[in-house]
Amino acid sequence: MKLLVRDLAQLATPAGRDAPLRGAALGEVDVLEDAFVLCAGDAIEAVGRMRDLPLLDSDVVEVDGRGLCAIPGLVDCHTHAAFGGDRVDEFSLRAGGASYEELHARGGGILSTVRATRAAGERGLLEAVERHRDWMRGHGTTTFESKSGYGLDRETELASLRAVKSAGGVPTWLGAHAVPPEFEGDADAYLDFALNEVLPEAAQLAEAADVFLERGAFDAEQARRYLEACRDAGLALRLHGDQFTESGAIPLAVELGARSVDHLEATGDAGVRTLAASDVVGVLLPASALFLGRPMPPGRALVDAGAAIALATDFNPGSAFCESLPLCCSLAATQLKLSPAESLAACTVNAAHVLGRGERLGRLAPGYRADIVLLDAPDWRYLAYHLGGELVARIVAAGELR
Ligand code: NIG
Ligand code: FE
Predict the structure, then answer these.
(1) How far is the CA of 312 from the centre of ligand 2 (A)?
(2) pLDDT in tens, 249-270
(3) By three-state DSSP, how is residue 388 classified?
(4) Does the model's pTM come out above 0.85?
(5) Does the beta carbon of 213 sit less than 6 angstroms from any atom of ligand 1?
């Protein structure tokens, strides 16, 4: 079965075949005017200009692309979609001046979502992840990662990972997100429990492990212990680091060969240089900085220093209740000073690389999975330009029109 999207105003895709892209290559986009994409099954067979469209037999479904631009399906490599309840009360308090860190220290914040998530049950959690996935899809996300981290007990952590997997997401075990109340602030005792009782099964469900390395959460030594055990169990490694303070996340990520270190709002010049000289991807989450009224991560400095970066939403109920990667591209342009081309690569091929899928996802080119976003726009750069706009006309996911 073939699907032809024809007569597109433009088709735009990160150039080349490499992943991750960095330096000048990050900003190189191939743009075709008056273009087509031909999909065969779940893969892209060909892209090109309409005048070069080959003769096709009759078994082809055609989609009219007039007035639309095609870009690769977006890849959200950092979300926390497995949670119950919401934090709208806390959001309102924050609007009145309370700080995120204060609320966390008072047992609100992440721990209030832990209570709601434990109460949701396996079915409730699956429904929540599916609802959040559908929101993401509405904004062009065809691949999403989601962390656990709001269960922090064996049953709810494993249920969260199963929910992400059955909703079609890429599961990451965020077993070290916060210390749950039953451990009364004893982070080491909690880690003993998590590594002994949860990791063996979590490692069968998840692809990666993540830790919140921060004042008030886990310190560098605890993060190292957690990550080394997870690596030994076969998981790829990620870190939440430098969100509020520089607490050693970048050196640890580099030393352990992590896939990524995410947030980086507090990263200074030395951190920028260390990250740029490594293979670790810096995942930038500008919606989270915006939502918390925090400084933006040094996106331009990272790219100029030669770091590989990705862009993600950080979708979660507390620090970024935002599922829109196009909005993150707008923030990347206006706040981080990244070009639309750099943003496109950051939330397609580079994000796919963070998820270990850089060979198959994130480009409109033969052999890649047929994940396509059709933008309701005359120019693909509306992706970043149309701030909060209704951008997504249709998506194609694994060759299927949605
Ligand atoms: O990435 N920083 C730690 N974790 C999440 C927020 C979790 C929450 O507030 O519920 C983040 O920002
Ligand atoms: Fe996060």
Answers:
(1) 9
(2) 999 999 999 999 999 999 999 9
(3) coil
(4) yes
(5) no
